[in-house]
Amino acid sequence: MLRQIKKGLNGLKIEKGHFYKGVVLHDYEIEVLRHIYLHKQLRATSLHELYRLLSNKKIETSNISNRLKKLLDAGVVARNEELIHDMSKNFVRYSYRLNSAGLEVLVFLNIIRKESIKTYKTNAHINKFPNLHSKVASTITNKIVMDLIKQEITFDFCRGNNHYLLGNDSYTRKTETTGFIIPDYVIETRDTIVPIEIDTGTQRAHIIKQKIEKYIVQARSKEFNLRNIHVVFIVVDNSISDTFETNRNRRVYSLKATFLSGFDLPGNLHFYAVNALHSIPLISYILNPKNNLEEIEKDFICEDFMELYNERYKQHFIQVEKPAVAKDLFHAVYTYEVNTIKYDVYLIYRVVGNLRDYQKSESALSYLSKRLERNKRFILLYVYDNATSALADVTTATDASITIAASYLPTEDNEDLVVYKHTSLLTKKAVKGVIEY
């Protein structure tokens, strides 16, 4: 039986029902309900974080729990209880989904269709406790979404199977040449679509290659030809779940190697492979229009870096022309000679996890390894937009005569300008210092 819902001065009022109490919903709680609907259900810890963010208040955990109890009593949300056995103790883990009144509120506000209620309730009954993949996907995406809200980026998001182009109800059902992709979640703006693929390490290479092929077909279709698609494979680490290892760099490297398997990517399609810990700033970077850099802008950034480096450390690296046969591989080239040894520094601007940048770096390494000379040393320097990315990206090791290093352009005049020379590029043991010669 439908409850009476009214808009009031203090929020949305849900009248008392036969079995449920009445309640007044704050404006921000409507957005909380929408997020629960999009995730199907949210763990209590994620829901508490969302409450604090959307309310723009420092609410105590006990106060949020009391508020959720009121929403439970009013039939707005329902709670699942999962008993966890951990060594010698037991504890209960809570997750929340929408109940009838919560769904009716979203229908009342035209956020969802009335027909969606039955589907939601059926799925909630069948999948009372989500599997590990669904849990970590929801947790990661919730953290990403909250970060975008904090930065006041205008966006929309949904579960992949509900997306109008990539989900179950999309035109792909009728198009044999595309088939289903169905990412875990999709975040999008007017010009950019970011499908999120959560990787727990169980998908085999042939499955991932099939997905890549389908994304390529989609990117070339008329529905996508005016939009950029940035597919982000997020490798789950223990920043999300204790079930996983801290360092998943080998899995990230494995994914990048899979992407290199002879795919011809259209210009509007981009792939990334990154650890969960670094996925939040990456997606924020992708959705920020100012970061859509042209190649010449990347050249300028690398030149600014070396000018600042010379100034800070009283060095004399001199800019030279890029090699004619490989000018598209590098954004700037500098040289310096000391004690009859010539040092050439090749700079590439990179975005953490980006496949195109990884491909460019692999080609650059191949080019340099064929040009090694007795009295010459090469430094391949990757320049990033921030220090975290400089330390986070995963690449390959190479010949000892080619030093791979990473740095970033400081944002403040007094910020240290450092170069991280990686001693082991998969385990990411980094030495902080300057360009050595």
In short:
Pfam families: Replic_Relax (PF13814). This protein has about 425 residues and is an alpha+beta fold.
Overview of the molecule:
The chain has 437 residues and is α+β, with helices and mostly antiparallel strands. The protein has 3 domains: 5-128, Arc Repressor Mutant, subunit A (Orthogonal Bundle), CATH 1.10.10; 138-290, 3-Layer(aba) Sandwich (Restriction Endonuclease); 295-433. It is 35% helix and 25% strand. The protein has 12 helices and 18 strands. It has helices at residues 27-39, 44-55, 61-73, 100-108, 116-126, 132-150, 205-219, 249-259, 279-287, 295-313, 355-369, 387-392, and strands at 5-8, 11-14, 23-25, 42-43, 77-86, 89-98, 156-159, 185-188, 192-199, 228-235, 269-275, 318-320, 332-338, 341-349, 376-384, 402-408, 419-424, 429-433. The chain has a 7-stranded mixed sheet with strand order 12-13-14-15-16-17-18, with helices on both faces. Helix 1 crosses helix 4 (100-108) and helix 6 crosses helix 9 (279-287). This is Replication-relaxation family protein. It holds the Pfam family Replic_Relax. InterPro entries: Replic_Relax (IPR025855), WH_DNA-bd_sf (IPR036390).
